[in-house]
Design a protein that fits this description.
Length: about 325
């Protein structure tokens, strides 16, 4: 693994960049991608963000233009020798979606903060001590001593940090996070607006889905594990999109006395997406890794090619080994 200074030195050698994040991108992924893109453009580099899916409405606060990004499905994905490819916030290469097929064919820089990242790039900078990849992008930009952060880039970095710290509620919130946020606020960013966009702006259909999901809530392992489920019928009845179910797991985790919260999302008849959150001691990234997934010690996920009932049974059996 190399230093962030070495990453910067290498980037300065290139004029063209393709930036990629992970599938089902969250606020850290989106904020980091566009913060880096806009910084690169400010130093006269050409860059394009490639996404696996269309941007969610909440990212309107970033002021992203249609010309700033393309979807993989609409882009001719070929290995280009004159282009540096950068992966952000993707804990392993299969999280890049369609971009995975490029990993061994291009010059790829991998920047991440997942502790289990296998270092799949030509150059790798992985720092699990950082609350968000947005912190890493901030540190990278600050190496440019002549550059002054503007409000647009600062908003993107703040979105990344706010998202992955749960609006500063998670254990990864450090004093360094607040120092960075203080500097970002000096540019005039709207922290209230960012928080509202990330965590407090729901469609009616999402609240209907929440009610259905909460009605499925169950407790296990002497009250140390709580889990809920979202089945296809719930999505159809509520009118919510499956992508809008990602935050439901927090309701399970936040129950008094619970160590691990889990959500089971039925993507298809025999495909179940599982999200894990823990409070104090359970390394849920290890549980997720057992099923082929990964993440952070307090937040992780996986996809199990089983029906939702079987997935619940298998996951609970494994989680009980940790609590």
């Amino acid at each position: 693994m190399v230093s962030l200074e070495q990453i910067r030195e290498e980037m300065l050698k290139w004029d063209n960049f393709i930036l990629m994040g992970h599938v089902d991108p969250d606020g850290d992924c989106i904020g980091s991608l566009f913060a880096l893109k806009w910084y690169l453009e400010s130093i006269n580099k050409s860059s394009l963000v490639l996404l696996t899916e269309e941007l969610a409405e909440k990212y309107a606060i970033l002021g992203i233009k249609d010309s700033d990004y393309r979807l993989f499905q609409d882009y001719s994905l070929t290995a280009r020798e004159d282009t540096c490819y950068i992966a952000l916030d993707a804990g392993n290469s299969d999280r890049l979606g369609a971009g995975e097929k490029l990993v061994d064919r291009v010059f790829l820089i991998n920047m991440d903060h997942h502790v289990d990242n296998p270092l799949y790039g030509k150059l790798n900078y992985v720092n699990p001590e950082k609350a968000a990849v947005g912190e890493i992008i901030y540190d990278l930009i600050k190496l440019d001593e002549e550059y002054q952060l503007n409000r647009k880039i600062a908003t993107a970095i703040a979105t990344a940090i706010v998202s992955d710290t749960g609006a500063f509620r998670y254990q990864n919130t450090s004093s360094g996070v607040f120092r960075i946020m203080a500097e970002l606020m000096e540019t005039g960013i709207d922290v209230y607006g960012i928080n509202r966009a990330m965590f407090s702006n729901y469609h009616y259909s999402v609240l209907k889905l929440l009610g259905q999901a909460l009605s499925s809530l169950e407790i296990s392992a002497d009250g140390k594990v709580a889990y809920l489920r979202v089945e296809q019928g719930m999505l159809e009845e509520s009118g919510a999109e499956i992508s809008e179910s990602s935050g439901l797991v927090n309701y399970a985790r936040d129950i008094y006395g619970v160590e691990v919260g889990i959500s089971f999302i039925e993507e298809e008849e025999n495909i179940t997406r599982v999200s894990f959150r823990s409070n104090e001691y359970c390394p849920v990234n290890e549980v997720a890794a057992y099923f082929g997934g990964g993440g952070h010690p307090r937040a992780a996920g996986c996809t199990i090619n089983k029906g939702i009932d079987q997935a619940v049974e298998l996951v609970l059996q494994k989680v009980k080994e940790y609590v």
